[in-house]
Structures are given as structure tokens and as C-alpha cells.
Amino acid sequence: MGGALLGGEIVAITMGAVGVSKGWPYLVFPPLAAVGGGIGGYFIEQAAPPAEVPLYMLAGGMALVIPTIIVTLNATLYKAPENYPNEPVQNQPAGEPALPRTSKRPVHVPMSFVDMHEGRLALGVPAVEIRPLYTQEEIAKFGVTQAREVKIPVFQASF
After folding, report:
1. How sure is the predictor about 29, in pLDDT bands with cuts at 50, 70 and 90?
2. Residues 29, 32: Cα–Cα separation, whole Å
3. What is the C-alpha separation between 3 and 13, in angstroms, rounded?
4. Which of 43, 54, 81, 94 has its Cβ near the most Cβ atoms within 10 Å?
5. What are the CA-CA distances from residue 85 to residues 80, 82, 94 (Å)?
6. Cα separation of 159 and 3, whole Å?
């Protein structure tokens, strides 16, 4: 296992150091090298009777996992072309959005039964108002009883 890790990592680190920026070579060559490293690691383990050599290979392969990932991601990172037009930096807060410009006038809502507005005649639902007839001061001053007043606008005109 150590031979497989080392084989793939050595190829990936070399490709990253050389500056290979396409992604597909990293998907093809390190796995092939890992297969070759695994086969080589098998024969190294068979040839070296003490367990130290395969253990060092596994520890080295595990130690190189994070640096290999960093070098690979750094090499395949998107880099803008040199002639890419840069926008000037404006360190100002965004302004208020512009209100849409409309040429329409505000809609006039008739508030009476018959409404005359800018030469146009319209029928509408009257805005009925029910309110007290006297204020509290008038009740105390004149001694009258409270009543309600109903106002129904029938005609309204504006020019």
C-alpha cells in the first residue's frame, strides 16, 4: 500500500511542480503510477524481510497526502489570462436603485359616488364616514347627548 501511495503522489507532485494545469492528466497518470508503485511495493516487501521498509513506505505515502493535494489544487487553479480586462476598483457603497421612469400619471381613485377629475367623469364607491357628532368638551359644556354623524360623499370635482 505504501508503494501505491508513493507512486501516485510522486507523479502528481512532479506534474504540479512542472505546471500541468489541465485536470485530465491528474486523473490518468497518478493512478497508473499508483498501480506501478503498488506492484513495486509488493516486490520490495517480498525482498526485504524486516517489516521496516514497507512501514516507512506507508508512513511516507501517508505523510505526502496533504502536500500532494495542495500542489495539485494549486496547479489546476483557474488563472485569468494576462490580457483579461480588469474593472477599476470602486470602493464606494452601492447607490440607491433608480426608480423606473414611467410616463403614466398616478391613477385617480374616485372617493364619491360621482367624481369629476381633470375633465373625466367617473362613478365610484363612496367612502362612508361615521363619526361622533360632538366632542367631549361640547358634551360637558352644553349638556347634549352624543349622537353619530354619517357622511356619504355623493359628488366630488377637481380641476
Report:
1. very high
2. 5
3. 15
4. 54
5. 10, 9, 22
6. 95
For helices 65-76 and 2-18, the axis angle rounded to 10 degrees is 30
Residue with cell 366630488: 156
CA dist 39 and 85 (Å) reads: 50
Please state the φ and ψ torsions of residue 97, each to the nearest 5 degrees: -65, 145
Please state, in angstroms and rounded to a whole number, the distance separating the CA atoms of residues 57 and 44: 10
45: left (phi over 0), alpha (psi -120 to 50) or beta: alpha
Write out pLDDT tens, residues 71-108: 988 888 877 777 766 666 666 776 777 777 766 677 88
d(C-alpha 20, C-alpha 14), whole Å? 9
Ranges of H-type helices in the chain: 2-18, 24-47, 52-63, 65-76, 136-142
Please give the single-letter amino acid code of residue 50.
P
Per-residue cell: 111:
372617493
